[in-house]
């Protein structure tokens, strides 16, 4: 359990929270809570937090992948509750992180390692947006064959048979940000 201020910085937390993340209170307090969340899930989680702080909701619960200090994944359910002070609007957020009891195949959770070149990232974003080869080629100032070369490299790199499977695998690995349109690659995966 942790208490966040209006800027979503960690103010206080219980010893179990520090233990789960493998950090001390000195290293976690004052840090942005979003830094503990896997990059592919930050946008929807931050949207939930902003709804709490604006008073649109009083609480939310969401599945989350958090990152410990050593970039080891921690999966669980994140519950956020608006905390009211003397003012009518929310003065902070109480966060409960309940880890999943079952063992998770941690090899399925990709750590933040560079995976794509800048051009590969742009091509993946275009494919996820539904663009075909020729519009992608004109948008990226490449030939049609150049786009196909990069697409076939992406298919091999992610070990998938076609473009639809490529987009699906990219979302499941956390390479593409969930809940964002047009599709966007997480910066941490770009070399």
UniProtKB/TrEMBL annotation:
Name the UniProt record assigns to this protein: AceR1
Molecular functions per Gene Ontology: DNA binding
Domain HTH luxR-type, first and last residues per copy: 109-174
A Pfam family hit: PAS_4
Domain PAS: 1-56
SMART domains in the record: HTH_LUXR
One Gene Ontology term from the biological process aspect of the record: regulation of DNA-templated transcription
Source organism: Couchioplanes caeruleus subsp. caeruleus
